[in-house]
Amino acid sequence: MTTRERAHARANNRRAAQFTELWIAGPAEDLAVMIDAANRTGRLVFVSAPTPMGGDDTRHRRYLRLRTR
To answer: pTM (2 decimals)?
Structure first.
């Protein structure tokens, strides 16, 4: 591995370590509280639109991307 390739790999690892991505599921009211808390702390980077779980399940799921630092 060349020096340039090592530097590129290290930079990519640092960028990836800055965020955590997760799916959350629950009632719409609970999701709103969690998203509001993440937004107030400044960690919220991206949030998807609510998606129904389907079937008889009344919960919704959302994808979140949060800053780790």
So the answer is: 0.68
